[in-house]
Amino acid sequence: MPFGIPGTILVTGNLVQDTVVYPADRIPDSGTQWVEHIEPYLGGNGASTSYAIGILGGRVRFKGMCGTDAAGHAIRGRLQSAGVLLDCLTVSDAYATAASVALVRTGGSRGFLHVPGASLVALGDFDSFTTAELAGCSHYHLANPFALRAFRPHTAKALACAKQAGLTTSMDTAWDSRGEWMQLVAPCLPHCDLLFANEDEIRLLTGFSDPEKAVAAFRDAGAKHVVVKLGGAGSITFAQGEPPVATPGFTIEAKDTTGAGDSFVGGFLAGMQRGGLDLAAVGRLANAAGALSATSFGATQGLRAYEATVEWANGLSRASK
Question: Fewer CB under 10 Å: which end of the chain, C or N?
């Protein structure tokens, strides 16, 4: 393993109410299109990753912002049901909880309509982590440095502060709607022990579609260990000083891929925190969490506890032989 995570994981990131619409294969110019499913769920890179860590038995604290509205109340309850610590969550009466409409097509692909709400100002006053925020923590994870507009200028500083406090660090790049990409990510990498990015993101960040070339570019910029997410094909873990570890994905019928990447990251970090698992086993757990997320509508509805996730993964493996 690149490193262990003996304590709690501190996660910063966005919290969003995702309203899933399915199927959204055709959007009418006028009139009414009947669909099978419209339902609100927990969403947001930070909240979804934190939930995945918690439901898999990990210890996790989430730092972000939501509103005092019904959406924020429901999402807080959902996070608490997975054991996520919310003592550092800011609840604002000035901003509504961020909201998205996920337009899910037949087969699971999706597009979003988004209102940032509290995400516009969340963590905008960041200077350093408090003693309470770091209490019991040994690892800091930055979920999507692009999602929180006011926090964007502070992302490298947050990672540096965590390192100075003795924590290991990780970051999941996700999607940059403003197109700054490496301009924002590069200053973060010298303070980042573990970087997560998918196939599209590595190309947009480095200019390389080939994972090995992209990883070399990330390391030239200061990153140590890199995990490339390959969707249904699985993942490849590039641990510094070790051969790459490719872990195959699981064959599923995807309903909704919203949050699958966040669930993958949550599974990976939960596996590292659990201890006793090698990189292949951690990657397998992460792939299973991502796949289970995609089997249900919403980012986290399909996730299961650790033992149930392992049993599900083993069952699919036996069935494929």
Answer: C
The 3-state secondary structure of 128-186 reads CCCHHHHCCEEEEEEECCCCCCCCHHHHHHHHHHHHHCCCEEEEECCCCCCCCCHHHHH
Q: Where are the domains of the chain?
A: 15-26+34-320
**What is 15-26+34-320's CATH superfamily?**
Ribokinase (3.40.1190.20)
Q: Token match 């262990």: residue?
A: 4
Is 85 within 8 Å of 62 (Cβ atoms)? yes
Which two tokens mark 11?
Answer: 């996660």
At 183-197, the pLDDT tens digits run 999 999 999 999 999
What's the predicted TM-score (pTM) here?
A: 0.96
Tokens standing for 64?
């972000």
